[in-house]
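Fill in residues.
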C-alpha cells in the first residue's frame, strides 16, 4: 500500500496544489523469464489556480482538481540471453474528462 501527501507552491504567484495519493502495486517475477507489474492509484487534488495553464498542468501532474484515478500494467519478458520485450499500458481518469489510455511496446537488444 502506498500513501503520499505533497504540497506544491508557486512562490511568484498564488498557485497552490495539495495532492493526496493512495494506491497499491503488485509485482510478480520469475527468475530468467520476466516480470509482471500491476498498479492502481487514487489521487485527491486541491488546487488554487488556473488548471488549463502550463504551470497548472505541471503542478497537477497532468490530472485535474478533484478525484483522479491512475492504473498501469507492464510485462517485461526476457528473450534469450541478450533480448528483452516490454509491454506497457497506463490509464487515467478524471471527473470531467474522458479516460486516457496509453500503451507502448519495446524490444531491447543488449550487446
Amino acid at each position: 500500500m502506498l500513501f503520499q501527501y505533497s504540497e506544491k507552491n508557486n512562490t511568484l504567484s498564488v498557485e497552490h496544489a495539495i495532492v493526496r495519493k493512495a494506491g497499491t502495486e503488485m509485482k510478480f517475477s520469475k527468475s530468467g523469464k520476466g516480470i509482471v507489474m500491476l498498479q492502481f492509484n487514487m489521487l485527491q487534488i486541491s488546487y488554487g489556480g488556473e488548471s488549463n495553464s502550463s504551470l497548472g498542468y505541471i503542478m497537477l501532474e497532468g490530472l485535474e482538481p478533484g478525484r483522479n484515478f491512475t492504473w498501469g500494467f507492464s510485462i517485461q519478458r526476457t528473450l534469450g540471453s541478450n533480448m528483452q520485450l516490454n509491454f506497457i499500458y497506463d490509464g487515467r481518469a478524471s471527473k470531467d474528462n474522458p479516460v486516457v489510455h496509453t500503451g507502448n511496446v519495446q524490444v531491447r537488444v543488449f550487446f
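The chain has one domain: 2-109.
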